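Handout for the seminar on molecular recognition.
Each group receives one record of this type.
Step one: identify the two inputs.
Step two: read the structure output and locate the region that could contact copper (II) ion.
Step three: write two sentences on what you found, then compare them with the reference statements printed after the record.
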Amino acid sequence: MRRAALAAGLALLATAPAAADARPPARMLVTADEWMLISSRQAVRPGRLEIQLYNRGEDAHDIAARRVARDGAGTGRTRRLPETRPGELGEATWRLRRGRYALWCTLPGHRAAGMRATLRVRQPNAGRS
Ligand SMILES: [Cu+2]
């Protein structure tokens, strides 16, 4: 009996991380133009996110993302999707936990000009806020 419980416990330990990683990543496309970021998703579930940046503008653009604390301050490390030239598609994979994230283009003046967006990371059936 005790051995069976131990075996079951070990089986859980062995399968839990694999099961979490086996889930396909969420995907999102952000289209950049002067001066806006248009996102295909307003919310994604926690975990891996494959994000693509399509630059349909005339300048280079990139994306940075940082979690926003309740008081509005940025918290944690900044995720990045590298600078992408006009007409090109950039890609990155981020691992995000629950919360609200600010997205913006880091090129000088672009954020202030309007190249910013908000992404919510939450379980699919969580209530809207
Ligand atoms: Cu930009």
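Reference statements: The pocket of copper (II) ion is lined by residues 61, 105, 107, 110, 115 (CB under 6 Å). The mean pLDDT is 88.
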